[in-house]
Amino acid sequence: MRKPKSRTRIQQKNIQAILDAALEVFSQFGFRGSTLDQIATQAGLSKPNLLYYFPSKEAIHAELLEELLENWLAPLHEITADGDPIEEIMGYVHRKLQMSRDFPRESRLFANEILQGAPRIMEAITGDLKTLVDEKVVIIRQWSAEGRIAETDPYHLIFSIWALTQHYADFDVQVRAILPDQRDDQIYAQADDYLTKLFTRLLTA
Fold first, then answer.
1. What is the pLDDT of residues 40-75, one digit of tens each?
2. How far apart are CA 52 and CA 114, in angstroms?
3. From the centroid of its chain, how far is CA 90?
4. Are 168 and 101 in contact (CB under 8 A)?
5. What is the pTM of this model?
6. Which of 97, 111, 116 is nearest to 187 (CA)?
7. At the top level of CATH, which class does the domain 62-203 belong to?
């Protein structure tokens, strides 16, 4: 991540414009399929102006991924051993679904990186993400051992939550094609209701 420094309002505006443009481009074309020219055009800046703020495509992508990972881990951090097990897990499901609704480009950026073998975030996946998942797995296993939820494989439970919530962002085009007459709020309300029933039934002891 670039070192914080004093910036003018114009500089801050341009940096944000570049990051917003890069998010749009990367989420559509992936890292390999994206170019600095595309990002500059999307941002409404010249390529030399873009390079004043970021030395390379890699630098822009790295900053986006760093911000993304911080936000991506936050919903899982909120699961606490002191709460009601089903409420804690369902809270996580709701938060992940809300992220798909509110941050679809970020979800696709992450998915594209994973599909490429995670070359730029493998360290974070095998480090911070794995550590956090392992911590929550211990909690879920304890709940199962105490009979507070049905016995389940915690890792695959978490994988299922990721798959079923992020689908609505990563496969947005497919969802809209199948449900062309429904608004976003209707789709996500129905998804929330369905996932609530699905996971509640799965977890009820």
1. 999 999 999 999 999 999 999 989 988 888 888 999
2. 29
3. 17
4. yes
5. 0.86
6. 97
7. mainly alpha
